[in-house]
Write a structure and sequence with these properties.
Mean pLDDT: 85
Strand content: 15-25%
Subcellular location: Cytoplasm; Gas vesicle
Keywords: ATP-binding, Cytoplasm, Gas vesicle, Hydrolase, Nucleotide-binding
Shape: elongated
Structural class: alpha/beta
InterPro entries: AAA+_ATPase (IPR003593), ATPase_dyneun-rel_AAA (IPR011704), CbbQ/NirQ/NorQ/GpvN (IPR050764), Gas-vesicle_GvpN (IPR013462), P-loop_NTPase (IPR027417)
Strand order of the largest sheet: 2-5-8-1-9
CATH superfamily of the largest domain: P-loop containing nucleotide triphosphate hydrolases
CATH architecture of the largest domain: 3-Layer(aba) Sandwich
CATH class of the largest domain: Alpha Beta
CATH topology of the largest domain: Rossmann fold
Number of strands: 9
Radius of gyration: 26 Å
Family: Belongs to the CbbQ/NirQ/NorQ/GpvN family.
Number of helices: 12
Number of domains: 2
Helix content: 40-55%
GO biological process, one term: gas vesicle organization
Largest sheet: 5 strands, parallel
Length: 294
C-alpha cells in the first residue's frame, strides 16, 4: 500500500462504516486474507480520527506485561537532613520503576491503538483488552503496585486486524473478545481498487496496471493457485524499473510472472507446480486480442 491511501468506492464504504462504529465507542476488527489492505486501511482510519497513533504487531511470544507494561529496575532515593548543625540524619528508600506498555500509554493519553495481526498473540495475552473494551478500565493489579486500575481516556480507540484462523501462527479469537468488537470481513479487493493500488505503487499507466491485475486475478480464480495483490504490485514495479511492457510478446513479462507468482505458491512436486503455473499464465495471456498486445 502506498503512503497516500488509495480511496476507491470500496475502501470509502469500509472507511465510513468503521468510523461510525469507532465514534459510537466500539472497537473495529478487520479480518481477511493477506494482501487485502487491512493494515493500510486501519492506519488510514486511525489518521482520520485525528489522535496520535500507537501501533503494535501481534506476536506469539508476547505476555500481558508486553502490552500493559511492568517494572523495570529500581530507583534509589537518599535524603540527608542536617537541619540541626551538629546532627546528620539519613533516610534511604528503594522503589521499583514502572513503565507504560503501549496499550497503557494509549489508554492513559487517549491515543488510537492499532493492533495489527493481533490474533498472532495468545488469547490469554489479549485478555487485557476485555476490561478496556467493556468497562473502559485497564486492570493493572496483577502487574503494578499502587495504581490498581486505570480509567481509559474518552478519546481512546481500538482498531484490530487479523488473518483467517487457518493461516499458520494465528490463534482462534476468544468468544469474550469477539463479543466486544465489530468485525468487518474483507474477503478480497474489487478490480478498481486493485488497479488503483498497483498503478500508484508501481508508477505504471492505468491501462498497463489493469492488464497485470487482470492476469493475476485470472490466475487467482483457480482453486489451486491463490495469489495476492502483492504479486501484481511486484510484477508492475519490476516492469516499471526495466521500462518494459506487460504484453504477450514480451518474454520478460512471462518470466517475471513465473518468478513472482512461483514465490507465493508451493507444491510437494516443483515440476508439477511450474507446469501448472505456466499453463495458467499462458492461458491468461492468450485472452488478450491482438490489439491488446501492442
Amino acid at each position: 500500500m502506498p503512503d497516500a491511501f488509495i480511496e476507491t468506492a470500496y475502501f470509502k464504504d469500509l472507511t465510513n462504516r468503521a468510523l461510525l462504529y469507532l465514534q459510537a465507542g466500539y472497537a473495529v476488527h478487520f479480518c481477511g486474507p493477506a494482501g487485502t489492505g487491512k493494515t493500510a486501511l486501519a492506519m488510514h482510519i486511525a489518521e482520520l480520527l485525528g489522535r496520535p497513533i500507537v501501533t503494535l504487531q501481534g506476536n506469539d511470544e508476547y505476555k500481558p506485561s508486553d502490552l500493559v507494561g511492568g517494572n523495570s529496575g529500581m530507583r534509589r532515593k537518599k535524603l540527608l537532613d542536617n537541619y540541626v548543625h551538629s546532627v546528620w540524619k539519613a533516610e534511604e528508600s528503594m522503589d521499583s520503576v514502572w513503565y507504560d506498555g503501549r496499550i497503557t500509554h494509549a489508554c492513559r493519553n487517549g491515543h488510537t491503538f492499532v493492533y495489527d495481526d493481533f490474533t498472532r498473540s495468545k488469547p490469554e495475552t489479549n485478555n487485557v483488552l476485555l476490561s478496556v473494551l467493556q468497562e473502559r478500565t485497564l486492570d493493572l493489579s496483577a502487574i503494578q503496585k499502587g495504581e490498581i486500575k486505570l480509567t481509559v481516556h474518552p478519546d481512546f480507540s481500538v482498531i484490530l486486524t487479523s488473518n483467517p484462523v487457518e493461516y499458520a501462527g494465528v490463534h482462534v479469537l476468544q468468544d469474550a473478545l469477539k463479543d466486544r468488537v465489530i468485525t468487518i470481513a474483507i474477503k478480497g479487493l474489487d478490480r478498481e481498487s486493485e488497479v488503483a493500488i498497483v498503478a500508484s505503487r508501481s508508477g505504471l499507466p492505468w491501462r498497463e496496471a489493469a492488464r497485470i491485475v487482470d492476469v493475476i486475478r485470472g490466475i487467482r480464480g483457480n482453486d489451486i493457485i491463490k495469489v495476492s495483490i502483492r504479486a501484481a504490485i511486484m510484477v508492475a514495479t519490476i516492469l516499471a524499473t526495466k521500462g518494459s511492457k506487460p504484453v504477450r510478446s514480451n518474454p520478460l513479462f512471462y518470466q517475471i510472472l513465473m518468478d513472482v507468482i512461483g514465490s507465493e505458491i508451493s507444491y510437494e512436486n516443483d515440476g508439477e507446480s511450474n507446469s501448472l503455473l505456466s499453463k495458467r499464465i499462458e492461458s491468461e495471456l492468450d485472452k488478450y486480442t491482438p490489439e491488446d498486445r501492442k
